[in-house]
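User: Fold both of these, please.

Assistant: Here is the first one.
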Amino acid sequence: MKIHQQVIQLKEKRRGFHLITGEVIHTMPQIAEIKTGICQVFIQHTSASLTINENADPTVRKDFEMYFNKAVPENDPDYLHDDEGPDDMPAHLKASLMGSSVTIPIRNGRLALGTWQGIYLCEHRDYSGNRSLVITAWGE
């Protein structure tokens, strides 16, 4: 069994849903050494998240942003946690709904994503800073 792990810093991205599949693959060339295995991508933050979805049409990512802004609005007077502004608590809620990691099978040295699938960084803050990802791949 081979196990590889890398930590990467993604440069600050604007609020929204961003494809990062290429950055993950570029960071972990060791995936090519694994015939059958698993790759986990974990984000070390509580106001951003990860998911897998449509990788071709950018309007899907815009619709994700629209939907989550409607579902988890800013400036709700019932929020107690607003230390860092009106997007603070909504960002935490969105991150919990979306999740902090994705797991992708590795098949014949490649991520076994579907034809139209890509890994999204879901940035829920207006001003976020860099984001850290821990990428772990293991298998035979």
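And the second sequence with its predicted structure:
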Amino acid sequence: MNWTYVSLGLYFLLMIGIGLYAWRKSTSNSGEYLLGGRQLGPAVTALSAGASDMSGWLLLGLPGALYATGLVEAWIGIGLFIGAFANWIIVAPRLREQTEKLGDSLTIPQFLANRFPDHASILRIVSAVIIVAFFSVYTAAGLVGGGLLFQESFADLFNNVSMSDYMLGIWVTGGVVVGYTMFGGFLAVSLTDFVQGCIMVVALILMPIVILTNDGGWTAANATLTNINPEFLSMTQGLTFLGFVSAVTWGLGYFGQPHIIVRFMAIRSVKDVPIARNIGMIWMGVALLGAIGVGIFGRAYAAQNGIILEKPETIFILLANMLFNPLITGFLLAALLAAIMSTISSQLLVASSSLTEDFYRLFLRKNASETEMVNIGRLCVLAVAIIAAFIASDPESKVLGLVSNAWAGFGAAFGPLILLSLTWKRMTGAGAVAGLIVGAASVAIWIAMGWSSEIYEIVPGFILAFAAIILVSNLTKKS
């Protein structure tokens, strides 16, 4: 019996079981299906926000970047940590309070429409289009991670299957996520995120320790890395000013990530926010340090053992298969699946909520029953998943590249908009529309022109959107 597959099978059954529990517990109306009835406790909120944020990027993209380039890539993690903390301080309490006060808003587009009623329709349409478009790409990044996992680890299990291991990984990963998301809604997504967050952080603590134990400790690893490149452990190796800005400004994206900030809308009360913040930041700090350790120490282990890795993003998978008992390997691969699936489920649900609440109810069936809305939401989850699977079908897709594009798109389009709508009373609906369009368009143009190699596209997008909101709001302000 292959205990790796047993561990993974138990993990899949646990996820489906949580989905069935949530289906019976909290899917009777749109408020329950999309926000869990605003009854999340602080621990579940914190780990759900963290797990849905980090995705396969934490166990694939970041360790791969560090493996290939060195410790200089850690600036991305530092920028994200600072941005996440600011998000909990500035956005979390205000968004929880204002979304409930302004018409009990269930989605970000709905909140914007209630905040700026004179531009309600166009805000809901534009923001929903942006959410669905960028989440299709973002979800594809998660499915790429699932495809890589199956391609690298389960070829022997599926060697008689007609389709490629990569595509099979995409469909299996997507199928399980769609299953518990469709039926269990927000509560299922949040509870599975909590379990997945626990699995992820244990794996990220365990793996660097085991690598060093097998690698001769820190002294041997340091000597090996120094031989590879004397500046491999330098945080300034080849770092330009624009490169530094591009790395740390990843943190700006937090203010505009709908799948993260929707957790703030669902927490039980504003009083629970500080507790959730402390739990979430501790979890994030430990997880980031673990991911950095996997990339850095994994490079030392590979060099000492003569391993040449063609795809640096698979270093976590390689180490899981080489260093551990099959039962533990299954747990570690489950942690990778947890990182992937927690984000995919959150993104699918937010995209589905925009399609149902901001298109279907708004334009097609204004008087639709709650049961009908929940069922339409389930169909939209499936539709977005199929689109994302098509985008992810290229096995050469880079997880970090897809994530960076979607992260920048949301950060620039919604970041300045959410910040100013919560903190600046003089902001107008016209300013909100201008910020959305300018932020999304500037990121898309920056990527299309190939300028992202010079500076990360979120920087110009965030600045231009912020300026557009202030300028248009001042030009259209009411007395």
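The CA atoms of residues 14 and 88 lie 30 Å apart.
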